[in-house]
């Protein structure tokens, strides 16, 4: 046996022993660590590994929604109207999740495939979505959501009045995929595809090489107009795509505000509007513009073939940018979307967090050890 083969075998053996020796944790006698409402989940909170940063940032928001449901509070639903203007509604947790978050039938599945979207595209690998709710009785998915736990304020709004606060949001490329799929689902018939084709106009036929920026840019305004027309057509069929819990700090940014937690939900059409809000760019094309072009091409190909090649579109239409991120939007630009009473005074206080994180689960958290964070939290070092 070669040295490399022995090395691989050793790694496999160590991995097996680690899994075999993995033990549950109980920090309070007779009480398992856990998160409110999550009776059934793909993450077992009795194990320390389920409390990592990447896991907690989607697990906690799901339980925050469940907790709000128990208090008969509904997240703020960011939508658009027939004029493509942003409007606020409320969306009940049972509607958001497609199932009662506290039901015995509610199963929380994280970083999972979402079949209702997967049928509309091909890819080198199917993309996972942050949270899929499943009805345990029917074994059917009831919703698929991206989760973005964001801090309030961000660096661009921290010196402004509370009403002007905003959160930075980084939108991944798969989020645009999910937006496209949610739109395709509204036109999923031959008649529907024909209607969508008519709304998109003939731009898709006029551009011969979508990977050639010089051919695409002259049509950008028409592409944007077509996407806005799709939004108008779907104004009464908007679907939640992004769940954005906010956690608000005090003015010094060193402690949680008294009223610190709330949840905003972005509809698929509100995400389109988010992509259209950007600062002026000196480049030939911005990430935001590329996002709108991606979305148009996905929808156009759906009208032609009944599905689209996500991998090919994102890679071929990269236009000099990396493809892992669609775009980012600062707090100054998200504030007009978020501005409401709940932004000024979130409805969940910091003293209620202990009702959401159960069994001393907070002791299993492993935040990043950052030198700058340590210095900020220890001002006595500079006295």
Characterize the structure shown.
The protein has about 375 residues and is α/β, with parallel strands linked by helices. It has one domain (about 25-365). Helices cover about 40% and strands about 20% of the residues. The protein has 15 helices and 15 strands. The protein has helices at about 5-20, 55-70, 95, 115-120, 175-185, 190-200, 205, 215, 220-235, 270-275, 285-305, 310-315, 330-340, 340-345, 370-375; strands at about 35, 75-80, 85-90, 105-110, 120, 130-135, 140-145, 150, 170, 240-250, 255-265, 310, 325-330, 350, 355-360. Strands 2, 3, 4, 6, 7, 8, 10, 11 and 14 form a nine-stranded mixed β-sheet that branches. Strands 1-15 form a two-stranded antiparallel ribbon. A two-stranded parallel sheet has the order 5-12. A hairpin with a 6-residue loop joins strand 10 and strand 11 (about 255-265). Helix 5 (about 175-185) crosses helix 10 (about 270-275) and helix 6 (about 190-200) runs antiparallel to helix 11 (about 285-305). The longest helix has 19 residues, at about 5-20. The N and C termini lie far apart (about 60 Å). Mean pLDDT is about 90; it is low at about 1-10 and about 15-20.
Q: Which regions contain 5 or more consecutive residues with pLDDT less than 50?
A: 2-12, 14-20
How far apart the termini lie comes to: 62 Å
Portion in helices: 25-40%
Main pleated sheet: 9 strands, mixed
Helix count from the secondary structure assignment: 15
Total domain units: 1
Mean pLDDT: 90
The outline comes out as globular
Number of strands: 15
Strand content: 15-25%
What is the radius of gyration computed over CA atoms, rounded to a whole number of angstroms?
23 Å
> Which structural class best describes the helix and strand composition?
alpha/beta
Q: What order do the SSEs take from the amino end to the carboxyl end, as H and E?
A: HEHEEHEHEEEEEHHHHHEEHHEHEHHEEH
């Amino acid at each position: 046996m070669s040295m490399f083969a022995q090395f691989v075998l050793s790694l496999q053996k160590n991995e097996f022993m680690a899994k075999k020796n993995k033990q549950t944790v109980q920090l309070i006698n007779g009480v398992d660590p856990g998160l409110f409402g999550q009776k059934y989940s793909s993450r077992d909170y009795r194990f320390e590994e389920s409390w990592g940063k990447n896991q907690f940032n989607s697990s906690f928001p799901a339980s925050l929604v469940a907790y709000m449901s128990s208090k008969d509070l509904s997240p703020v639903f960011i939508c658009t109207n027939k004029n493509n203007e942003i409007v606020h509604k409320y969306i009940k947790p049972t509607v958001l999740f497609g199932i009662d978050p506290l039901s015995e039938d509610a199963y929380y599945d994280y970083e999972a495939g979402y079949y209702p979207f997967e049928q509309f595209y091909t890819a080198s690998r199917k993309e996972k979505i942050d949270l899929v709710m499943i009805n345990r009785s029917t074994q059917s998915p009831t919703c698929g959501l991206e989760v973005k736990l964001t801090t309030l304020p961000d660096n661009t709004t921290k010196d402004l009045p509370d009403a002007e606060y905003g959160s930075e949001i980084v939108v991944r490329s798969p989020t645009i995929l999910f937006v496209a799929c949610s739109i395709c689902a509204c036109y999923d018939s031959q008649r529907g595809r024909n209607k969508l084709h008519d709304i998109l106009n003939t731009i898709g036929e006029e551009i011969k090489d979508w990977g050639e920026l010089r051919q695409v840019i002259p049509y950008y305004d028409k592409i944007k107009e077509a996407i806005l027309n799709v939004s108008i057509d779907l104004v009464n069929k908007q679907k939640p795509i992004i769940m954005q819990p906010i956690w608000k700090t005090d003015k010094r940014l060193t402690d949680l505000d008294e009223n610190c937690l709330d949840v905003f939900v972005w509809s698929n059409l509100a995400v389109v509007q988010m992509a259209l809000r950007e600062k002026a760019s000196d480049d030939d094309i911005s990430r935001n513009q590329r996002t709108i072009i991606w979305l148009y091409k996905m929808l156009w190909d759906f009208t032609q073939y009944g599905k689209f090649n996500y991998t090919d579109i994102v890679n071929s239409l990269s236009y000099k940018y990396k493809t892992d991120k669609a775009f980012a939007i600062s707090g100054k630009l998200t504030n007009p979307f978020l501005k409401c009473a709940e932004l000024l005074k979130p409805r969940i206080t910091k003293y209620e967090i202990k009702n959401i994180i159960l069994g001393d689960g907070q002791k299993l958290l492993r935040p990043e050890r950052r030198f700058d964070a340590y210095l900020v939290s220890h001002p006595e070092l500079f006295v």
